[in-house]
Design a protein that fits this description.
Layout lengths: L1 H10 L8 H24 L7 H19 L7 H22 L15 H25 L23 H11 L11 H29 L5 H4 L5 H15 L8 H26 L5 H5 L1 H25 L4 H25 L10 H28 L7 H8 L1 H18 L7 H24 L8
Helix pairs in contact: 2-3, 2-4, 2-14, 3-5, 3-17, 5-6, 5-14, 5-15, 5-16, 5-17, 6-9, 6-12, 7-9, 9-12, 10-12, 12-14, 13-14, 15-17, 16-17
Length: 451
Amino acid sequence: MVQFKDERERFVSNLRGTTIVEIFLHIAIIPALFLLQSAVSTTLLPPVRSQWIHFAVDYLCLNVALALSVTVLADNIAELIGFTVVVSMFLLCVQRLFLTDRRLEPYHGGELLYADMKQSISRFKCGANVITSLCILAVDFPIFPRRLAKTETYGTGLMDFGVSFFVVCNGIVAPEARPNKISRREAVGKAINSSVPLLFLGMIRVVALKTVDYQEHVSEYGTHLNFFFILAGVKIISSLIFTVFQPSWAFLVAVSTAIFHEVALDFGIRDYVLLTETRLGLLDANREGLVATMGYVAIYIAGVWLGRQLLSAQNFSGVVSRLAWTCLWSTLAYILVVENIDEVSRRLANLSFIVASIMLSVTTIFLLTFVNIIVKSTSAFQPRSLLEDSVNRNALAYFLLANLGTGVVNFLFDTIYTKDHHAFIIISIYMFILSLIIFSMHMSNISTKFW
């Protein structure tokens, strides 16, 4: 058992990742699949139909196709995106030209409503959660390319950006990002209340992993810290920062925090994290997570700024302009930082990682916004993705179930020795059960968010 645990840990260790372009393509598949889901739902399904049929379409488009993109078709991701877009546009054109009985009033663009922008953000949140939950299991199988897994120290892998996407999402929907102002004390109170469940889940995860002697990648966050602790810490620290600075200063605060963090790394913190071999005491044992937290705080505050920019725009041109400029400057900033300062390091959450996270997030939201406009321009029937609504309603429960499911699969199967076709079947069943549970909770009007 100990030997097998060590083999699993080595299987996901000492990896260098891939290019940022390939990472972008694997994230860009999310808007393409939402376009496909919308095209299939509006063209091939009548407006009123069994919700279970719509669930099946969502599962095939947003789960199975996504699983293909990181396993069987990972080497052909560009072709998969192109095929998905072509099929989607064909279906939408058929609907526009021939299915006139379903067309009400065409969408002419004009004012981009507040609800439309919220839908793009909602799809980004759902996509980030689904692809992260998919990858945390798929990475344990050889069918998942090693270059997409988390890197050890430097480099870019698809899984490196899972936490940062969650952090950006939380920043975008934070109280400080909303048009309606709330008091600073109330914002801190909300941050603490929403962090309590995360801290509780973090402690449960630590106890569970230590009890069953489950494999861990210690260099990721440290000996005891995990995703839940990091997310809770980022929320609380960021809300405290906003008690000193106005949310309207979010951009300057994010930039200042990122630069301060990079300078601190240069003044010995980087060597301490990467070169120290001992883990004596609680702080030393969790140095990776503690140091990276400030980088995630910068990402969170940047998310607040992004949310304020997007949700305050009054029209389509305003949204497109803001997104386009943010995509442009973040891409230029990424090139400059990587070429002149340091490589990307998720382990340190350094300046390159911060800029890369913002660049990928903004670009994905930009593409999702265009998907939203394309669908509204070709169809008056606008079905919401039931899977999207289900996942976002109980996002934390979905991710928790994904972690539990991953553990169960790893106990039932020798994942690193599983053949590719068996692995894909297991991953597909895992995603189906996960989606079915969260969809059933949504249909039963069950919400686990009580804070």
